[in-house]
Amino acid sequence: MARVTGLFAGVVAVAALVVCLGTGPAYSGETAKPAAPAAAPGTAPAADSGARISATPMEFDFGTIDEGDKPMAKFTIKNTGTEKLVIYDAKPSCGCTLANLSSKEVAPGATATLEAIFNSQNAHGGPVSKYVTVKTNDPANPSVVLRIKGSVNAKPAPILTLSPFRAESLNLKSGAAEDRVVKLSNTGQLDLHITEVTTSAGISAKVDKFDITPGKTVKMALVIKPGETRSVEVKITPVAKPGPFQEVVTFRSDAKGMPATVFVARGTVQ
């Protein structure tokens, strides 16, 4: 009987050693243990798996607002895990949303509040969708994206559209020129006023009766009615030595949200 008991104790000791080696750090020459299978979709993680983030709501709809309004979206961040949740960052998708966080550390079972303000000033109108990305120490879900959506009734304004707004991958021999036509369109509801056009050293532009030679600025009083389009004749003559070049034409106007609109030409001089 003593011999059997001793043998059983030895087996238990070996089993304990195997478990200990299997859960410790891997050393050179060891065969890594396969990872535990992931939880099935829709199932909650184990309660003892560390910090866990839960956000309510995942999407905030502010409805229909007028341009200039600044609706606030509120989200509740909850730690459903058993260890402290650390919020490293709450980053909006662009400068028109501002994220405020009540606390960067959330104890197990506790909550924090995230407020995001959408500034609709200069919005072009129609559906709007913005995002706030929340990064935490949740190992299973380190990055959570919260959505803010709605619709904006824009105020009447002039809107300048360039087509095309750039010319890419041009290959020009030294001293050669490339001609392009750029369309200036007013897609807004009020008269658009072009007040100034500036060219860089290797490009010229002709707008109606105005000729803008390379490296010059010409002031003007050009009015484009809503729905109208004007053609701009552009001649690209880069002065750069062999290698890459970039030339620009800058249009200044009273266009909504874009006092300076730029046509860009890029390429290589052979």
Helix content: under 10%
CATH architecture of the largest domain: Sandwich
Count every beta strand, where a strand is a DSSP E run of 2 or more residues. 19
Mean pLDDT value: 85
Task: Quickly count the domains.
Answer: 2
Which fold name is given in CATH as the topology of the largest domain?
Immunoglobulin-like
Structural class call reads mainly beta
Task: Pick out its properties.
270 residues; mainly beta; Immunoglobulin-like; 5-stranded mixed β-sheet; 5-stranded antiparallel β-sheet; 1 helix; 19 strands; elongated
Model description:
The protein has 270 residues and is mostly beta strands. The chain folds into two domains: 101 residues, Immunoglobulin-like (Sandwich), CATH 2.60.40.10; 110 residues, Immunoglobulin-like (Sandwich), CATH 2.60.40. Helix content is 8%, strand content 51%. It is built from one helix and 19 strands. It has a five-stranded mixed beta sheet, with no helix packed on it. A five-stranded antiparallel beta sheet has the order 10-12-17-14-15, with no helix packed on it. Strand 14 and strand 15 form a beta hairpin. The protein is elongated. The N terminus is likely disordered.
